[in-house]
From TrEMBL:
Matches recorded under InterPro entries: MptE-like, Put_SteA-like, SteA-like_C, TPK_catalytic_sf
Gene name tied to this protein: steA
Top-level taxon of origin: Bacteria
Record-annotated membrane-spanning stretches: 333-362
Protein name: Cytokinetic ring protein SteA
Extent of the signal sequence: none
Domain 6-hydroxymethylpterin diphosphokinase MptE-like as annotated: residue spans: 156-224
Organism of provenance: Caldicellulosiruptor naganoensis
Alphabetical UniProt keywords: ATP-binding, Kinase, Membrane, Nucleotide-binding, Transferase, Transmembrane, Transmembrane helix
NCBIfam families named in the record: division_SteA
Cited SUPFAM superfamilies: Thiamin pyrophosphokinase, catalytic domain
All residue ranges annotated as the SteA-like C-terminal domain in the record: 319-369
Pfam families: MptE-like (PF01973), SteA-like_C (PF12555)
């Protein structure tokens, strides 16, 4: 039997902030993405109750695969009606194939089994061909509508942070972004780039004791601590000027500038760095593949394609750099290090009178033996 208190939210990224190891997360997350999966694993969960389909088979979403490979039990596809019957703090019990809430029978448990999942996962790669065609068409269609975005036909706000002639690090909550931050920490300490965090990526930077200079986004996943500690806040609004995140900033008594334009907040951050004269733009955790955008529920990547086309000469993509090279300590290097440490020690001993007498006795002993 599994038993625990419920933590429930329609947005997994919000739920994990309140999650403790003994809690049972209840989510409504279709096609769980990689970032969500790893954020749940960081909280050491043993079970996830998903009222949506963790894996639909439309494309090879990685979230469910990651959770199952770490032996996390997934109860799947219970339906939105069941989700609406569960409240934060409820006592949830799972007895074999039955789920109980506060001692009351709720529904049957549907387990997502590893073997069943693998069959669907392999089939999903075949579906990618059809999706790719639709994705390309959507990208080209929206590129025509969003070309004003890349041509700079929107107002870029004035900022206090000096970017011209400096390196700019743009951090987004993407695949392996936390490991990548650690991997380039020496670069951050030595070069001291301007750091732009896209929404919740600011929290990961603070965990590494790195303060972002600018936070850009719709402000739905970044913590109050990050907002209070950064130098500047830029709210990304809809093209019509509606900025739901601005109300939160005002509630905290903070000031913010607003950028009204299409595209993602990551695109805006990259374009801001470019337009303000950055010498080099380093991107961590970027979303740049079809799978990234399908996991985010986006049908195309026109704005991202156009932005990268414009800033390509200055852009260095550090996504996955932590996987590129894992430093290993060689026995040869250890031997050289030990030898280099022993040489000065032996030199000192050779000029010390007691040790000189000791070495003289050894020399005499060897002469006797060799006769």
């Amino acid at each position: 039997m599994i038993k625990g208190k419920v933590k429930i939210d329609r947005k997994t990224k919000n739920l994990v902030k309140r999650l403790k190891p003994d809690d049972i997360p209840v989510i409504l997350h279709e096609d769980i993405d990689e970032v969500a999966a790893y954020s749940l694993l960081e909280k050491k969960v043993k079970i996830v109750v998903n009222c949506a389909k963790s894996f639909t088979g439309r494309f090879p979403a990685l979230g469910a695969k990651i959770l199952l490979s770490h032996d996390v039990t997934i109860i799947d596809d219970l339906g939105e009606d069941i989700f609406n019957q569960i409240k934060e703090g409820d006592l949830l019990e799972i007895k074999e194939d039955e789920i109980y809430i506060n001692g009351r029978y709720l529904c049957q448990a549907k387990y997502l089994r590893k073997e069943e999942f693998e069959r669907y996962y392999q089939k999903s790669f075949k579906e990618m061909e059809n999706l790719l065609e639709d994705f390309i068409e959507n990208t080209l269609e929206y590129a025509k509508k969003e070309k004003s975005f890349i041509l700079g036909q929107f107002e870029m706000p004035e900022i206090q942070t000096k970017i011209a002639g400096r390196h700019v690090l743009v951090v987004t909550r993407g695949s392996s972004f936390k490991k990548d931050i650690k991997a380039i920490k020496n670069y951050i300490m030595e070069v001291k780039p301007v750091i732009i965090a896209v929404d919740g990526a600011a929290d990961a930077l603070l965990e590494e004791r790195i303060k972002p200079h600018i936070i850009i986004g719709d402000m739905d996943s970044v913590s109050e601590e990050s907002l209070l500690r950064c130098d500047e806040i830029i709210v990304h609004s809809y093209p019509n000027g509606y900025a739901p995140g601005l109300e939160r900033i005002k509630t905290l008594g903070l000031n913010a500038k607003v950028i009204a334009c299409p595209g993602t907040s990551e695109d805006v951050a990259l374009l801001l760095a470019y337009e303000k004269g950055a010498e080099l733009i380093v991107s961590v955790g970027s979303h740049s593949s079809m799978l990234d955008f399908l996991e985010k529920g986006r049908k195309g990547m026109s704005s991202t394609f156009l932005v990268r086309l414009k800033i390509g000469s200055k852009l260095v993509d550090a996504r996955g750099v932590s996987k590129l090279y894992t430093e290993k300590v060689s026995l040869k290097y250890i031997g050289i290090l030990l030898l280099s440490a022993l040489i000065p020690i032996l030199a000192i001993l050779m000029v010390t009178p007691p040790f000189q007498y000791f070495f003289y006795l050894i020399q005499l002993k060897l002469r006797v033996i060799l006769r």
